[in-house]
Specification:
- The protein is of the alpha/beta class.
- The protein has 13 helices and 8 strands.
């Protein structure tokens, strides 16, 4: 096993926007509340952070701000993936230069490269930095899945240490763990935290952590402490809220949830739209069920 970046619950943090930029005071508040709630790592400028609609300068500024706000208390993992390898390299170098602990690098989207291209893409990024990389497999969004054989090849690189697995296929994750045990596996799906821990996973990069940081952390910690039944009870208890947080495409529900909790999360950026009334009612009910609003 390679050195772990973190164990437990890393929050896939939302980015609070104003009408024309990032709301930095609220961004700081979110980070501080996550740390106070026991979150084990901050993941910034990922899918939940709406990085896809951030201009380059804003993307970089969000990473720098998070590193400066956290001040080394917990790991900061910067989303630096792109379907343009050269840009991913440039952004990854920048994230390292401003203090990011590690990088989260999603598979190239839209281009739909081959496994050969995928391996070359990740190796080129890994060669350009001196901090660890978490591969991010989410084929429902990108159209590209990382094959087990490609994981095995990439694991030979010293900077490629982990994977955020959001393919939803526990059988594939089982094969990954069997074939490439040296890679740390983090769940990319909140409804599979405990199942993936049971396969040797080391935690989750979580949307749920935005609204329930302590319980998401505790779910993992209970499991690590041998209190598997308690971990499973939390996983099951939060099934309604997890369903609500993914009843529309992420991060629409979680950003709405954070507004409902009293955070100035700000607008969603187009093409994301506001929730339907039916789904909003579902989200409010689930949050109330857990005394979160």
């Amino acid at each position: 096993m390679k050195k772990e970046i973190f164990t437990g619950a890393g929050v896939a943090l939302i980015t609070p926007f104003t009408e024309d930029g990032i709301n930095y005071p609220e961004f700081a508040r979110l980070i501080e509340d996550q740390i106070a709630g026991g979150t084990d790592a901050i993941v910034v400028a990922g899918t939940s952070g709406e990085a896809a609609t951030m201009p380059d300068a804003e993307h970089r500024a969000s990473i720098k701000f998070a590193c400066e706000q956290v001040k080394g208390r917990i790991p900061v993992i910067a989303g630096t993936g792109s379907n343009d390898t050269a840009y991913a390299i440039d952004l990854s170098k920048y994230a390292e230069s401003v203090g990011a602990t590690a990088l989260l690098v999603v598979t190239p989207y839209y281009n739909k490269c081959t496994q050969k291209g995928l391996a070359a893409h990740y190796k080129a990024i890994a060669d350009s930095v001196n901090i660890p990389i978490i591969l991010y497999d989410v084929p429902s969004r990108t159209g590209v899945a990382i094959a087990t054989e490609t994981y095995a090849e990439l694991a030979k690189h010293p900077n490629i240490v982990a994977v955020k697995e959001a393919n939803g296929d526990l059988s594939k994750i089982l094969r990954l763990r069997a074939a490439v045990p040296e890679l740390t596996v983090y769940s990319g799906n909140d409804d599979q935290i405990v199942p993936i821990l049971s396969l040797g996973g080391k935690g989750v990069i979580s949307v749920l952590s935005n609204v329930a940081p302590k319980d998401t952390h505790d779910m993992c910690q209970f499991y690590f402490d041998g209190k598997v039944e308690l971990a499973a009870k939390l996983q099951i208890a939060y099934s309604d809220l997890i369903d609500a947080l993914f009843c529309e495409v992420n991060p629409i529900p979680v950003k709405t949830a954070m507004r409902l909790k009293g955070y100035a999360a700000g607008p969603l950026r187009m093409p994301l739209s506001e929730m339907s009334e039916e789904h909003l009612a579902q989200l409010k009910k689930a949050l109330k069920n857990h005394d979160l609003i």
